[in-house]
Protein 1
Amino acid sequence: MSRSCRNLVDLRLDSISHAYGETQVLDGISLDIPSGRIVCVIGPSGCGKSTLLRMVGGLERPDQGSIVQMGAAPAGCLNPLTYIFQDFALLPWRSVAGNVELVLEDHPLTRAERRDIIDDVLRRTGLIEFRDTLPKNLSGGMKQRVAIARALAVKPAVWLMDEPLSALDAQTRELLMDDLVGLWSREAFTALYVTHNLAEAVRLGHQIVVLSRRPGRIREIVEVRTPLEARKTADPQLEAHQRRLWQLIRDEAQAADRELVNG
Amino acid sequence: MAEARVGTAASGEVPFRGGGFRPRPVRYIGLTVFVLAILVMEWGTRAGWISNLTLPRPSDVGLTLWRLAETGLLWDHLLPSLGRFAVGSAMGVTAGIAVGLSIGLFSLARAGLVPVVAAIFPIPKIALLPLFVIWFGIGEGSKYALIALGTFTPTVVATYGAVDNVDRTLIRMGQSFGLSWASIVRKIVLPGAMPGILSGLRVSLAIAIILLTAAEMIGARYGIGAYVLEAGSLYDLERLFAGVTILSVLGVAVNWILSKVETRVLRWRM
C-alpha cells in the first residue's frame, strides 16, 4: 500500500444529527472518509445508516451538522458524489447503453465523446455484448454491473453505495465483490459503503464504522489492514474481525429486532 | 400385478392440483361467439320465434349497411362523426394529459385542481349539452366541447395516478446524478407514466364515442348519431342496427389502434 493519497481526506462529516419528528435517528456522527479508501458502515437495521448515506449524497438535509467535500474532484468528473442503489434503479425502457447514456446527456459532450465513455465503462464491467439488452432480460448481478458502469461513466470522486449487493443471491454477491475489488485495484476509488452484511464489510472495507442502534452513534471504527486483493473468503484474520464485529452489534441487533416499527 | 397393488395400497402417483387462474389466449373463440350469435338471430327471425319487432334480421341489417355504403351516404354520416371524434378527443386528451401532469408534479396544482376534477368527473356530461349549445353555438363547437370535456376528466385522473405511480427510486437516481428537472420529467416521469396514461386513454376514447353519438342526436343533420336517432324515431330497426354496428366497429377499431400503439411504445414491458 504505497498510495501517497493515504492521508488525504475526500469527505468530512461533522457532528451530523437528525430526527424524524420525535424519533432521533442519528446523533453526532463525525467521520472522515480518506481518499482512495472504502469505508464501510454497518449497524442494526433502522440505525439510520441509509439516512446518513442520503445526506452525504445531498438527497436529504440533516437537522444539524455539515458534510464537506474536500479538495478538487478528479479531472473529467461529472458527478462527484455518485450512488449505487440496492435495487439498481435502472430505467426499464432503456437498454444497457441507454441507461449509461442517461447520466451523460445533460453534460456538454459530443456524440463521439459520449460513445467512447459508454464503450469504455461497458468494457470495464464486462457488459459490452449486452449493450442493447433491456434490463428485464438481465440477471440481478448484471443489473448491478450496469449500475456500476453508469457510476463509472461520471467518474465520481466518492462512491456512495447503499447495500449494493443485498438484493443479490450469495453466489452473485461473491462474484460482484471480486469485480469491485478488481475495479478498486486497477484504480483506487473512495467509497462510503453501507451494508448490514458483515462478510461484505470485512471483505471490502479498509475501515469499518460500527453504528449503534437508533439513535445511531459511532460505536467503534475498525481498521482492516489486509490489502483488498489479498483477502480470501476463509482468511482467519478476516474471520476474527467478523466475529468481533458481530459481538459488537449482536445485542443491539437483537434489541432493534424487538423494537416496534414507528413505536 | 395384483400383488404389487396390495403392497402399495397407500402409495400412488401424486395427483396434479396446480394450474389454472392464469388467462391464456384462445384463438378464434371470440369470432366464433360472434358468428354463432348472429346465426341464432338470423335463424330465429326467419323461423319466426323472434318477432320482427324485437330484432331485425341480421342479413337485412347487412343489406342496409351495403346500400348505405353503395349510395355514399355512409361517408356523409361517418366522416363528420370521425372528425368530431378526432377533434374533440384530441382536445380533451391533450388538455387532460397536461393538467394531469401538472397535478402529478406540482403540489399547488394538486391541491387546487384535484377537488375541481373530482367535482366534474361524476357529472353526466350529456346534461351539459344545452349549456354548451348556448356557449359554443349549435354547430360543431358544442359537439367538440362535449367530447373534449368527457375525455378530459378520465384522462386527468389516469395521468396523475400514473405519475404518482412512477418508481420514486428512479427519480431519486436521476437527482443523484444531477439530472435537470426537465430531464427527469422527460426521461423518467413521462415514460414511467406512459402505461397508465395509455390505459386511461382506452376509457376516455370509449366515453368519447358515447358522447359523440349523444351530441349528434341534438342539432346534427349528418353523423352516425343523427342517423341512429332518425332511424329510431321511425322505428326502422334495420337502419338503427346498422348505425349501432358502425359505432361498435368504430369502438373496436379505436381499441385495436390503441393496442398497436401500446405494443410499440411499451415494448420494454412485453
Protein 2
Amino acid sequence: MIGVGKKRRALFALLTGVSVLAVGAIYADLQIGYYTSSNLGSVAQPAPPHLQNDGVYSVAAYPLYAPQLASGVGRQDTAAYCNTCHTPSYITMQPPLPAAAWEAEVTKMGKVYGAQIPTDAQTRIIKYLQTHYTPETRKR
Amino acid sequence: MLAHNESHMEHKSNAYTRRSLLKTLGIGAGTLALSHFAGANAFAQQLPATAKRLPSFTGPGPNPYWNSVGPMATYPQKAPLVLLTDRPVQLETPRNYFLNAITPNEAFFVRWHLESIPNEVDLSSWRLHVEGNVNKPLALSFSDLLHKFKPITLAAVNQCSGNSRSRFGPRVPGGQWGNGAMGCARWTGVHFRELLDMAGVKSGSVQVQMEGLERGKGPHGMPSYEFKKSLDLSNPVLDESIVAYSMNGAPLPTLNGFPVRLIVPGYFATYWVKCLTDVRLLDKPNENFWMNPAYQVPDTPRGDTTPADVKAGKVKMVPIARMPVRSFIISPDGTTKIPAGLPVTVRGTSFSGFGRVVKVEFSESARGVWREAKLGEDLGPYAFRTWECAWTPEKPGKYDLAVRATDEKGSVQPDEGVWNPGGYLWNKIERQEVTVGESA
C-alpha cells in the first residue's frame, strides 16, 4: 500500500488583499503536470501486411517473451530440456511450489507427456527448480 | 517510493504548485492559507509516485488481482493482452473488455497446449475430414462449409477449464489464470450434427473425437505431440454444437482457431477444438491423456475435494463438462477513488453453462445485504449477460462490493472456493474493494 502521509482537504482561501485581487479567489488543493519515464511505450505498432488474393492465410511469427531463469547449477539442463516443448515462462508463471510438486511436475513431463530427459539431467532439473522456485527459495 | 527520488527523468512542466500559485497571486508565506500546512517537507512528500508495477508472480497464497500478473504482450491479430506463456501461447483478456457482452476478436483470450500451431493455412488444400466409423467419409472444403449447409449463429461463452486457477488455495500447478480466460462471441457455422448425419454414423459408434492442427515437439502418439478430445455421441450438447467459420462476423483469428473451431455451448473450452481438421467416429471411448487424466474433475458436488483425499486415492474423477454459474464486477475496478455521495453505476457480466442467468445480486458490504441488479440484453442461454446496479456510497471508507448470479436451474454462486488438483471449476462469489473518499 502506498501510504498517504497526511489527509488533505480542499482549501478555500478567501483573499482580501487589496493590492492583488479585488474579489475573492477560490483555490483548491491540487497537483498538476508531473511526468515520469516509462518503458511501456517501446513496442512499435505492426505495419499492415501485404496480402494476396490466393488461398493462403497467414500471420506473422509469434513473438517470444521468454523470461530469464534464476542463475545457478542446473539452469542449463532446465533451459535445454524443458525448452523443447515450452519456454521457461511455464516455470516462472507458476506460484512458488513445494519441492514435492516440482519433482512431480518434472517426472510427469517424462512419464506422461513423453519428454526424453536422461535420468541424471532430470535429477539436476528437479534440484534446480527446488533450489529456486519453492515458497522458501523463490526470489523473483 | 516517491517519483522525484526515483528518476531524474522526472519532468515537472507547467507545475502550479500551491506555493507557486500563491506566489503568482502575490501572497507571501505565512498567510492564513499556508498555516494549514505542516510545511514544505510535508508537501514535497506528496508529489505523485511513479505507478507501481505488479509483481512478476503471485503465491504461495492466492493471486489477489483480477487478471493474472504477466506483462502486456502483442501477438498477430491481437490487441495487447496479458501474457501467461509465450510458447505455447497463452494470453488473458484484460478486465475492461468484459463491460460488453460480446468480447472483440482482438481481445479474445488464447490458450494452446502445444507449440506447433499454424502461422499459415492454405484453404486450397485445407479440408475438414469426417471419418472413422461412418458410411461415407467426408473431406469438406471451407467453401463447402459456407455453401452446402444452412448457417447457424449462436452467442456463447468460451471459458478455459482453468480460468481463475490462481485463486486456488493451496495453489496448483498449471496456467495461472486470473479471471480473463473467458470470452463471448457470436459464432456462425454449421450444425455439428448435420456433418455427422451427412457422413452417416455407423451403429456401434459411441464417441466423436475432434483433432485440429495443434501439434507439439514430443514423440508421436504422446500428449506432447497431439491434442485430441472426444464427446459421447449420446451427449445432447452435440445437438447444439457448431463447427464455426465466423467469429463476431469475421474470420477467426489464427490464435483462436482459424479456419474453423468446434463450439460446444455451455461446456468448458477444452472441447472447443481449434483449427479443427478431423472429426472421427469411434466405436470405443478414447482414453488419451487429454481426456484422462487431464481435464478431469472430482465426481463430487462442485468438483470439490481436498489434497488429502486425492493423496489417499479416495477421489473418483470424471471428465469436466458444463460451466458453473459465475458473475463478475468489472467497474468500478478499485483503481479510482470515488467521492462520497457520487452516484455510481456498478457494472459487470455473468453467465452459466447450465442455461440463462436469471438473477444477479449486488452487495456493497461483506455483510451480504443483496440487492437485485438490472440485467442487460439477453443474447441467448449461453452468452454473457451484463448487469448493472446504481450505487451511491454515502460515507468515506472501504467498501467490499460483491456480486452473485443465479441461473435458470436455480444454482446460486457460493461464497466458498473450490479445490481440486487440476485447478478447475472456480465460481466463488467475486468481490471488489473500493475506496470512497471525502467530498466535502
